[in-house]
Amino acid sequence: MEFDPKTPQFLTSDPSSFASVSASDRWPVILTGAIDDLHRTVGTVTDDEKAKDGKSIIEQLAKMKYELQHNRPLTPLEDDGEADIASYNKELAERGNPKWHDVAWLYAECYLYRRMETFFALSKHWKGYDVFARQKMSTFKSSRPAVLELATRYRELAQDAESGVSSEGKSPEEVEQAQRLLFSEMCEICLWGNATDLSLLTSLTYEDIQKLQGSEARKASQKNIIVNDLDAAFETMQKARREKKDGERRVDIVLDNSGFELFVDLILAGYLLSAGLATTIVLHPKRLPWFVSDVTPKDFSDLLNSMADPQAFYTAADDTDKTYPPLAEKEVADVQFLFEQWSQFHQDGKLIIRPHSFWTTQGCYWRMPHVAPELFEDLKESELVLFKGDLNYRKLTNDAEWDPTTPFKTAIGPMGPQSGIRVLAFRTCKADVVVGLPAGEDEKLRQQPNGGGADARKWAWSGKWAVVSFSDGKQ
User: Fold this and answer.
1) What are the residues whose beta carbons fall under 8 Å from the beta carbon of 49, sequence distance 6 or more?
2) What domains can you pick out in the chain, each with its CATH number?
3) Is this structure's pTM higher than 0.85?
4) CA-to-CA separations, 223 to 25, 189, 219, in angstroms, rounded
5) Are β-strands 351-353 and 225-228 bridged in parallel, bridged antiparallel, or unpaired?
């Protein structure tokens, strides 16, 4: 904790914080879901020893749920052979062996998922099992209409970008303006994930982009982005393209959720490569099941496998034996275009999967230069590092009680100015911490229905509002 900022963190004991709601309401439900998933899988096992092993893990999950609900102290993690266990336990002791309902929210939430992993890692037959995998793919399957719509639009866009036909007859200024708007569109799709309003996607072409910019749907979405630094990020990437036209221009994406959100992350990655805004995309997944739906390397391969034969994936009967209508021939072709393009990018070394153990440590990213210096140095090689989602934002800012007018570059400490790293954070707000707001904005949002008033920052809990925050650490 020696490298963390001095600003206090949000605590599970604070009734005005979403930390308290998470500990009392959300975490027991997550553990119950994990128990139910494993119980369901154990029921299909014919090997008695494996079934017994699985039932032992269920008992451990139930014990942790009991401790959580009855506000017992967090206990040291069992050593499963990974190097991070000592760090978790050292910090637990430094925090005074706290109880579940009176502890720093960020530490306790990471501890919860890391402790779950030890149950499987220390088992004989269940190493690598992901209690969230079934839920992840089910959610992706339920996103069928959005996937098909995006696949159609993306295929048109990628083919236009690669052929250059959309730039014919246009001045350099017109081409750049169109590219700026397309970049903004693709980033907003990526920002909102499965909350994306598909009415935004009706005209993703160079010709119609001006109409799209003026659409009511886009305006409605944009007004909920209360900090929006996309223009600054685009200028940075354009400058890199001009100055390093024939050189390496890498973009990193520190991933958040799997399923449809990973799909839209890949849409953005594919667009950046097709449009020549990047030459390489490095994706950073988690090395173990994390925060229910975070991407693991297997989730990436599962997603691509589902797209290799979309007809089979999207028409397979579910657990209730519900059947689904077949895809049209063009829908199959559009999804397979994405599969083939992304697989080729991956094969050519342009789309790289690079997990690192740091992403599942318990601390904030202020610690990265000290506890993962090789990762910190590697990120300096990137033109832009995109941090996706609420957890990454919380870790960038140490999930601390900053004044909301605190500049983003201040709140991210060693990841900010003169770090050598350009940080772009995409985040729909689902936690109390928020920075970079204009004076008075937090107070105004608190006065909205369910905004929390003077007692809490409830407006920041729902995911309705978003921030896109940029810090140029290479300046």
Assistant:
1) 124, 125
2) 18-131 (1.20.930.60), 137-472 (3.40.50.10880)
3) yes
4) 30, 14, 6
5) unpaired
